[in-house]
Amino acid sequence: MERRLRFVKLENAVQSLRSNEKSSLTYEQLSRSIPLSVLHSQTSQSFREIPLIRTLRFKLMRSKKNRKLHCEIEQFSRVYNHFITVIERYYRLFKKHPSASRLKMLLPKLKRTRRLSWLKTMPSQALQDVVERIDRAYKRFFEERKKGRRCGKPHFKQPENYKSFTLKQAGWELVGEHSLRIGDFVFKFHKSREIPSDKVKTVTVKRDRLGDIYVFFVVKSTEFVPKRCATGQSVGIDFGFDQFLTLSDGTSVDAPMFFKQDLRHIKQLSRSMSRKVHDSKSWNATRLDLNRAYRAIQHKRDDWHWRLAHELCQKYDLICFETLNFKFFQRKHGKKVQDFGFVNFVKKLTYLAKRYDTQIVFVDCFFPSSQLCNACGYQNPELKDLKIREWVCPVCGEFHERDFNAAKNIHDEGGRALAGLTEFKNFEIIS
């Protein structure tokens, strides 16, 4: 925040000098208020323009009209299940899956039937989005199966488990400061920031397990962000189970383990819920308390991830990671990997890297980062056993701590990937 204020102050000072040639503000006066490193590194173009796709989330105010949205979500679940049935029948007859365009052609025919005549009252673009959602799920299923990975195909969903529907150009309208018209009803939401209505691409209505409804605005726009002063620092990062992150500069980051901290409370609520009559008033009340506890854990974990991602992007110009199959580690190590939230952290970090102009390199997962000696390059085959945390290189005699040595190797391999000197070609560079 302090850095941003300095950038704004500098920009205002430069603009005042341009607008008034007889201004009494001199270069010496300007340099007294702003550090020389910032002054010399920043020009009149101290802000850069970046394209961003942002998702703005707002919570709807509690109202009896929200029942209408719950009913619409359940109706969309019926449409979802109907097209799952159509796809399965089509596959049994023709041994192939229909395309999304062919499925969309069925929508006008379904509206003319007596059984599904209520589809006429549903937004047409939202119905098409349901078909597109199913098509993406099947494509993902076939891609994962080709790669030899375990993946379940799309299946039927109970109405209570279906969560959202999406509106595109039509079917919604912003009314007033904090009101949204969907169909014939106007819903109020808690507005925490401005919404550029001319740049909104989609509007998604989603409910959570507590029955609260949120509105998601996907906004595609350009933002002017201050240019970050280059630090000239780079780092390699290794994910671990003892520490959340191990950095090549010798530091490590421990995860707070939010789920483990609240595990006792969650067990008490689960035990209390199991002793009550299913779907009774007390059972539903305990279920809501349990979902609130899970949501609180998720919020605390997300907040910690964002803070750590901001700190890393501000400090380093280049960050190197190793691509890992976190689903495999989650099946093998269970709750601990899930409590870390590696995947969500990487997503947040890659998003902030574009804002901070930080480069991220993902090194191939088959690169033997833990087995290589960072000093001489000797590969120790005995280190495939994860229980070995410390070892001494038999060639050069260098002592290594497993995670720290892996982080340094990932850092060096990321540099070679940028230079095009690595034999492992499956790397990704995000800048």
Description:
This protein has 14 helices and 15 strands. The strands form 4 sheets. Strands 10-9-8-11-12-15 form a 6-stranded mixed sheet. It has a 4-stranded antiparallel sheet with strand order 1-7-6-2, with helices on both faces. It folds into 3 domains: 2-45, no CATH class; 58-224, no CATH class; 231-431, no CATH class. By secondary structure, it is of the alpha+beta class. Residues 1-45 have low confidence and may be disordered. The chain has helices at residues 2-19, 27-33, 36-41, 66-94, 100-104, 106-111, 124-146, 258-261, 263-274, 281-315, 326-333, 335-340, 342-356, 402-419; strands at 47-59, 164-167, 172-175, 179-182, 185-188, 200-207, 213-226, 234-239, 245-247, 252-253, 318-322, 359-363, 390-392, 399-401, 428-430. Helices cover 45% and strands 19% of the residues.
Overall mean pLDDT: 82
- Give the helix proportion (percent range): 40-55%
SS summary, helix count = 14
Succession of helices and strands: HHHEHHHHEEEEEEEEEHHHEHHHEEEHE
How much strand content do the residues show? 15-25%
Given the C-alpha coordinates, what overall shape results?
globular
What is the radius of gyration? 27 Å
Distance between the termini: 23 Å
Main β-sheet, spatial strand arrangement: 10-9-8-11-12-15
Q: How many domain modules?
A: 3
Kindly state the number of beta strands: 15
Task: Tell me about the largest β-sheet.
Answer: 6 strands, mixed
SSE class? alpha+beta
Poorly predicted regions: 1-45
